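Training component of the fellowship. As part of building independent skills, the fellow (R.M.) carried out the full modelling exercise for a liganded target. The chosen ligand was adenosine-5'-diphosphate. The inputs are recorded below so that the supervisory panel can assess the work.
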Amino acid sequence: MTLAVCPGSFDPVTMGHLDIITRAASIFDNVIVAILENQAKDHMFSLEERLEMLRVACAHLPNVQVDHFEGLLVDYVRACGAHVVIRGLRAVSDFEFELTMALMNRKLDPSIETMYIMTSMEYSFLSSSIVKEVAGSGGDIHGLVPEPLVERVSARCRRKG
Ligand code: ADP
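Fellow's submitted model of the complex:
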């Protein structure tokens, strides 16, 4: 059985994330989408909200589970019994950060491999931050976040924006 972990902040989950998760789920038997609880980072949505939104977004994918973790990614991945981490790549600007993380994780645990799925063209510009910015200014986010989450994300961003 092959198992992969897709880690991230998912603040909130976007169609770009869902695209990567869906493609990972077609390659691996099982996928765990795991939210990193990072107290140092200021998130718009609480951990519980992000978990709940990811569960809604992935409800149609039977081999995808949603979870969260604190601390080192490699420790979490090992505890899950997985050996593969999946990340998405959008632009060259993602590369430097991803390379640093992948090399550090390999140093911490050489048995864990980080693999990258290239963004789909239509989502190459898409990030959680841009969704929050657009929605905060009253812009239409249909097609940018999963359909069942459009109202919820828009309402929250308008209140905070
Ligand atoms: P992090 O804070 O760990 O980067 P994110 O929630 O921003 O968490 O992203 C999680 C993963 O999803 C990362 O690997 C990121 O590169 C990828 N990702 C985000 N948006 C897109 C997108 N539009 N297309 C492809 N991958 C994406």
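The panel noted the following from the submitted structure. Residues 8-10, 14, 16-17, 20, 87-88, 90, 94, 119, 123, 126-128 surround adenosine-5'-diphosphate (CB under 6 Å). Strands lie at 3-8, 30-36, 64-69, 84-89, 113-118.
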